[in-house]
Amino acid sequence: MSDDARVSHGRVIRSEFRPHPLLRNPHLQTLSPFLLRSPPEMPLRVERLQTPDGDFIDVGWSGEQNAGASIAVLIHGLTGGFQSKYLRGLAQRLSAQGWRIAILLLRGAGEPNLTPRLYNHGDTADLRWLWQQLHAREPGVRLAAVGWSLGGNVLLKAMSEEGHDALPDCVVAASVPFRLHECVERLRRGFSRIYQQRMLGDLKKAVQLKHQKVPVPPGVDLAATMRARDFHEFDNAYTAPLNGYRDARDYYQRAACGQYLDRIHRQTLVINSLDDPFMTPDIVPRETQLAPQVTLELAHTGGHVGFVAAGAGGRMEFWLEARIAGWLGAP
């Protein structure tokens, strides 16, 4: 994680990841951890924090036996949460390395929150506020952060917004949707529609549950939200008007992190696969679009938050978690 200020831009490197020989297909890479992996065991203490706008966020703490140690803030993907296996697996590894873990449950991802606001790709306020709270509690504590998919987009956008003032000194993002419009279009095609259908169903349930108690704000079309057949229709009816965007395209353009990667001033590793079924290879940024502190590691295969390699006896080995933990190192 050396800081080479002599170069004018970041770098793109080839990943050493090699897929499990039985899981070379991007969909098998994506689905096998979800379907075949047992949930990693992880102690979890949930702390509820009251936000300045009268709402709340939940933070899941693990690794608390490492009292006084550095803190890794983890940010889940769309429809993820404390139960996400990729997140729990990394928390397990980092805890064993001596880290404390603070998992940010994005606003509205768990129990319905109290205000109309719901997490989205462009909303970085809660993550940045959490960093400030952790720093205020322990001014000398070292912070790192890791985000996956939507959580990776939120993390990289937050780091660009914080710039030289960013509190984490290093971050990792994986399976990042650098350009959202292209990703939404990809999820409308072929087998990828299955992922869209699953996530869209979960989002609709969350919205429906939320608005049993929280009034629907002006401009939001709840009926159209419930009828939405894809993310574009959902975001046009719900996400965009809820968050002050003109429409879905405006949301995708302004919220996507790819355009902000040259504004990051902390050591950053981004890991993506070129066969990710949530996106297309042409959205991957060039070296000249990266700040000097940013390294983009590309694998030819790996799916979306997959990266399943072969371990001893052919068992599944979750390479991405090992790579992230190894890069972060000891706290």
Describe the fold and architecture.
With 331 residues, this protein is of the alpha/beta class. Helix content is 34%, strand content 18%. The chain has helices at residues 26-36, 85-97, 125-137, 150-162, 180-186, 192-210, 222-227, 231-242, 248-255, 319-328; strands spanning 11-14, 45-50, 56-62, 71-75, 100-105, 143-148, 170-174, 267-273, 294-299, 308-310, 316-318. The strands form two sheets. Strands 1-9-8-7-6-4-5-3-2 form a nine-stranded mixed beta sheet, with helices on both faces. Helix 4 links the parallel strand 6 (143-148) and strand 7. Helix 2 runs parallel beside helix 10 (319-328) and helix 8 crosses helix 9 (248-255). The longest helix has 19 residues, at 192-210.
Give the arrangement of secondary structure elements.
Elements: E1 11-14, H1 26-36, E2 45-50, E3 56-62, E4 71-75, H2 85-97, E5 100-105, H3 125-137, E6 143-148, H4 150-162, E7 170-174, H5 180-186, H6 192-210, H7 222-227, H8 231-242, H9 248-255, E8 267-273, E9 294-299, E10 308-310, E11 316-318, H10 319-328
Provide a compact summary of the structure.
By secondary structure, the protein is an alpha/beta fold.
Could you list some keywords that capture this structure?
single chain; 331 residues; alpha/beta; 9-stranded mixed sheet; two-stranded antiparallel ribbon; 10 helices; 11 strands; disordered N terminus
Determine the mean pLDDT: 96
Q: Could you estimate the helical fraction of the residues in percent?
A: 25-40%
User: What is the beta-strand fraction?
Assistant: 15-25%
Number of helices: 10
State the total count of DSSP E strands.
11
Structural class: alpha/beta
What is the 3D form? globular
Low-confidence stretches: 1-5
Q: Rg, please?
A: 19 Å
Helix/strand order, N-terminal first:
EHEEEHEHEHEHHHHHEEEEH
Distance between the termini: 13 Å
The spatial strand order of the largest sheet comes to: 1-9-8-7-6-4-5-3-2
Largest sheet: 9 strands, mixed
